[in-house]
Amino acid sequence: FVFGVAADADVGSEPLEVVIPEVLDPQYGLYIWPSSVVLAQYVWFYKNTVKGKTILEIGAGASLPGIVVAKCGGRVILSDCAEFQNCLDNCRQSCQINNLEDVPVIGLTWGQISPDLVQLPQIDIILGSDVFYEPEDFEDILTTIFYLMQKNPHALFWTTYQERSANWSIEALLYKWNLKCIHIPLETFSADEEHLAGSTLPGSHTVHMMVITLKTNITSVT
């Protein structure tokens, strides 16, 4: 994946190349999904925002957005389900291939309060690409996000999802957990194309970008 080679790339900005190991496996987190490339493009577009920030990627899997954060000067923490050791290993392999040392990789299971969750440092931004995949996981995800935002009231959750069903909605759960989202048009961060970062993704898939925060704290999408 190569970011920053499009015609509208920043003048004077060096392209960023990221190598991600992928495994053809039924486990979701072992290969790149269309939503991951869109979120990574959002991170790249706002690279000056992520620089120096502490950023947690949940459900990281192959970790493309998180790796882009680290390459752009952010302090990233990668996480995936504590029970999915192969996904956590994939996170570590992505770091190694991209010459990133000392990137923490931790097991966080959505909906569970674990020592690793409690001991996290102050978080500025949370990343999640296509974490809203299985409807039965939606509330567990938002429970975890709410917990993190109670501890970090000004944190933003940058998340992308692939449209799969017209009945897909988290609006009621957002209301329940005192959260609010704004939808970010893809064209505002140069992601309204079928081929991003020199890849074949997102292709013809419909991907949406959202920023979620506590209801009283949306002041800026970045």
Describe this structure in words.
This protein is α/β, with parallel strands linked by helices and 222 residues long. Helices cover 27% and strands 19% of the residues. It has helices at 34-45, 47-50, 64-71, 85-97, 115-118, 138-151, 171-176; strands at residues 2-3, 16-17, 54-57, 75-80, 105-107, 125-129, 156-162, 179-184, 207-214. The strands form two sheets. It has a seven-stranded mixed beta sheet. The protein has a two-stranded antiparallel sheet with strand order 1-2. Helix 1 packs parallel to helix 3 (64-71). The protein is globular. It starts with a strand and ends in an 8-residue tail after the last strand.
Kindly provide the radius of gyration, computed on alpha-carbon positions and rounded to a whole number of angstroms: 16 Å
Shape: globular
Number of strands: 9
| Overall pLDDT level | 90
Query: Could you describe the largest sheet, including whether it forms a barrel?
Result: 7 strands, mixed
Which percent band covers the strand fraction?
15-25%
Entry summary:
This protein is of the alpha/beta class and about 220 residues long.
Topology:
Layout: E1 2-3, E2 16-17, H1 34-45, H2 47-50, E3 54-57, H3 64-71, E4 75-80, H4 85-97, E5 105-107, H5 115-118, E6 125-129, H6 138-151, E7 156-162, H7 171-176, E8 179-184, E9 207-214
Helix pairs in contact: 1-3
Features:
222 residues; alpha/beta; 7-stranded mixed β-sheet; two-stranded antiparallel sheet; 7 helices; 9 strands
